[in-house]
Amino acid sequence: MLRRIAPALLTVLVVALGVTALAARPPRGTPQRTADFVVLAGIAGLRWEDVDAQRTPTLWRMAQDGSIGSLSVRSAHLPTCPVDGWLTLGAGSFAAWNGSRAADGCPAAPVTVEQPDGIGANLPDQESVVQYNQQRLPWGALPGSLSESVRCSVAVGPGAAVAAARPFGRVDRYAPQLPADPRPLLGSCVLSIVDLGTVEAADPTARAEQARAADAELARVLAARPPRSLVLVAGISDTDQPSRLHVAVADGPGWERGWLTSASTGRDGYLQLVDLAPTALAALGRPMPERLFLGRPAISAGGRPADLVEAIDAPANADREAAAQREVSGVFFALLAAMQVLLALAILPLLRRARPHAGPAGPTPVSKRVVAVVELLLVAAALTMPAALLADAVPWWRGGHPGWIFAGVTALLVAAGTAAVRFAPGYAGTLGPLGAVAGLTTLVVGLDVLTGAHLQLNSVVGYSALQGGRYAGLSTVGLGVFLAGALLTGGWIAQRVHRGWRPAVMVAVGGLAVVVVGSPYLGADPVGAIALTAGVSAAAVISAGGWLTISRLAWAAMAALAVGIGFAVVDLRRPAAERGSLGRFLSALGDGTGGFAVHRSSTENFETLVNSPLTVLALAGGLLVWFALLQPWGGLMRLLGIYPAVRAALAGTVVAAVLGGVLDGAALDVMGAAAALVVPMAALASLRVLGHAADRTRPAPDRSRANSADDESGPGGVGPAGGDDGPTGGGGPSDAVHPRPISGPPASAPATVAQPAPETPGDRHGDADERADPTASGSTPDVAPPVPVPPRQVSKSSTEVAAP
């Protein structure tokens, strides 16, 4: 009875772990009303490298007293041109200007601003811009949402007019430039938006002069600011390609000397352009619009260094790292995909010739040295992803040739990891390298997540703050590598314990991985946690025996669905501004705007599938598995039959990686990252299984056919009498080089078959998966008198060795 309900109990346990991990939220400061007036000052193109005490003294003093951060200026267009940045600011969501664009991707003509009454202004193109964003772009942004949320707003300059214009084009109060005395204008409305100019020159001298001019205008704004006001200064957009991180400074009551952050980034010191509109409304104590902004209100977090030079160096360093990451990551993934493909082609002849053949005829065995070298190359290939992640602990981006420095550091780490695996205990075993590589990978990624995921941010195999998609927790590549490593580690451990305990081991290891992935304190990836829950459930059900069937896949899908529903219920009970991505999506479905989210997800999946080099890794790995490893000569089916816990881990990895990629809009990226680890290790283990395919094991004295009848060893010539860990015909135990070969009987004497003695209840202290180790005991088992059998001719071959 317990065995029948075990899958349901395990599923409930995994679901409980998943919901618990996703429901908890780290404590964050709640945005409060802190000002009676808000002034948003934008300087297109301003970066932290433009700020110093001599060129920009006003901004320097403002950063000294206020809170600072790196601003990601993502919009609905790439690159974010100044007009796109201003429009995104006013919409509180990713927006873009319509119309024709020049070669650099920005509109060729300036924005038309009409002043019919001398008080306000009108943008005649605003209605067409609203229609373009509402009907043509997937974000459903409504330009003018910020100004619609206040009774009155002021705009100074054409860029500010774009941000302050209401959806029908009206700007309440407008001035082309700051008047001689800006006090009456800035004090006439609770919200003022000021265009302080652009910093766009490539020449350092000209760029410094532009920054100095913008700083002088900022000094006038600060001198005329209304009492009890919040001033936000932002590098509102890019001015050239590629994109960069920009300046964000907040100065006012409650914003003293901290790091800017928001719920949309989840990391101190980082802010998005779409966060500025909700920040202004929260500071004024005004309600958010009915159609929620994509951004979240910013708050000031502690922990900033007292020295401003040191504090400013952090966002400036992040900008340099993000720029270097963009240049290196494409080359890295292309080289990794090429290396994996070449290694897959090189291993094909080894698989063909790895299995010993009986008789004098057959292919010449491959040299043991060649096999050993290929095995080390497979280990190195599997460790490349975690090594590239760990390389970010070294500031390689600060050198003159960051790409070469990164390559050198990564190569050294790969060599060190490969040496550690090679000399680790148990390397000679069939599953020794697999367990060591999986454990090492899980340890590297897990420790990074537990310590704040600092290696993920702007890492070559992590996420970039320039893309504006993720700022904290696990990256797409990190998720794929971590879930594969965790499930393989669980399968390796489960294979070494009693068969009845294997599901519990898989749930324990997998459940911890679900918590690490899904907890907002750690991985902060609810979609990844839901997908991993499905993978863990499938692995737990299979680990005791059997294969991935429709019913077991249904159990996994039910577990993932239960976690998703549980988290959705918890998330929907939170206030609208505090909901996560799942809660916002369900809310959008309720108000009829969920189609935008579905369209965005499908578009992201397609673009990632077509453009990502990880797609090549996933496809190359799949082709190698299907056309080589799963063939009768490939060895993988034999491996899966001998080691059911490893079979379960591989099945769970496939389920979790595919589901995580599709739900997260990453297509095959998660699967490609997982394949970079799993496929080389599966190929190595298959080579070793084939190499021992002709070995034969001596039955253990306490083993009987009845005791192993319920063992599901699977196909590949492995019968149930052999058990899972060391059946007759291949593989051998996971911690031995191979089982001891048994010599055949002499040709001149009749062979005998030993009949086992009658078994007593006290003799059955083993189970169906215990190893058949001929050296486990120094005693000889009790046997019945031998029964003669006719003699047979035995040839000396790799399968049997004739007695001398």
Form type: elongated
Average per-residue pLDDT, rounded, comes to: 79
Report the portion of residues in β strands.
5-15%
Largest sheet geometry: 8 strands, mixed
Radius of gyration: 32 Å
Poorly predicted runs of 5 or more residues: 703-804
Strand ordering within the main sheet: 6-4-7-1-8-9-2-11
Q: What's the helix count?
A: 23
Helical fraction = 40-55%
Distance between the termini: 54 Å
Structural class: alpha/beta
Oligomer: single chain
How many β strands by DSSP? 14
Q: What do you see in this structure?
A:
The protein has 804 residues and is α/β, with parallel strands linked by helices. An eight-stranded mixed beta sheet has the order 6-4-7-1-8-9-2-11, with helices on both faces. α3 packs parallel to α6, α11 runs antiparallel to α23 and α13 packs antiparallel against α23. The protein is elongated, with a radius of gyration of 32 Å.
Keywords:
804 residues, two-stranded antiparallel ribbon, 23 helices, disordered C terminus, eight-stranded mixed sheet, alpha/beta
Quickly describe the structure.
The protein is of the alpha/beta class. The chain has 23 helices and 14 strands.
Topology:
Elements: H1 2-23, E1 37-44, H2 57-65, E2 67-72, H3 82-91, E3 121-122, H4 126-135, H5 145-148, E4 153-156, H6 158-164, E5 170-171, E6 173-175, H7 183-186, E7 191-198, H8 204-224, E8 229-234, E9 246-251, E10 259-262, E11 270-272, H9 276-284, E12 298-301, H10 308-354, H11 368-390, H12 402-422, H13 432-450, H14 476-495, H15 502-518, H16 526-542, H17 550-572, H18 581-591, H19 594-611, H20 614-629, H21 636-642, H22 644-663, H23 669-691, E13 752-753, E14 787-788
Parallel strand pairs: 1-7, 1-8, 2-11, 4-6, 4-7
Antiparallel strand pairs: 2-9, 3-5, 8-9, 10-12, 13-14
Helix pairs in contact: 1-15, 1-16, 1-17, 3-6, 10-11, 10-12, 10-20, 10-23, 11-12, 11-13, 11-23, 13-14, 13-23, 14-15, 14-16, 14-22, 14-23, 15-16, 16-17, 16-22, 17-18, 20-23, 21-22, 21-23, 22-23
